[in-house]
Amino acid sequence: MKSEHFTRKVMSRAGISLNGNLPWDIQVHDERFFDHIYHSASEGLGDSYVKGYWDSDDLCETLGRFIAIGARRAVRGPITHNMQTTHEEQLRSLEVVDSHYEAKNGLYRNMLDPYMLPPM
Q: Which of 28, 85, 95, 106 has minimal Cβ neighbours within 10 Å of its Cβ?
């Protein structure tokens, strides 16, 4: 199973074992978990958790470890591989996404209140 192999590889980079004994290890309850990670990147981790496909004894540590490895970058391979675009188009798309995440606070100051929250 390609998605299971990929998921195990990504999780091992974060020091997370599947069905392991450490508090931050992921206990898989449903095999659909693997496809969620493979096809939906880090969003798949949250979505599959909400659906009950997995859990861990220390969710904060699990998520922290996943984020610490740059999980969005770690799962780019299958996502860009599945796109019907050239390699150059894939790289450009990722650059555009990154630029949106790196937007300066000035942009947000114009839309949000002084506490950087949506106005009530």
A: 106
75 and 90 co-located in one domain: no
CB 16 within 8 A of CB 47: no
> Could you tell me how many helices (H) and strands (E) the chain has, helices first?
7, 2
Model pTM score: 0.59
Q: Determine the Cα–Cα distance for residues 56 and 42; give it in Å rounded to an integer.
A: 16
Closest among 57, 33, 58 to 46, alpha carbons compared = 33
Residues 33 and 88 sit within 8 Å (Cβ to Cβ) = no
Domain that holds residue 54: 2-82
Do 63 and 103 fall within a single domain? Answer: no
How confident is the model at residue 72, as a pLDDT?
52
Residue 54: which H helix or E strand, with range? strand 54-55
Q: Render pLDDT for 28-40 as a digit per residue (tens, 0 to 9).
A: 999 999 998 888 7
Tokens of 113: 């209140």
Compute the distance between CA of residue 48 and CA of residue 68 in angstroms, rounded to an integer. 20
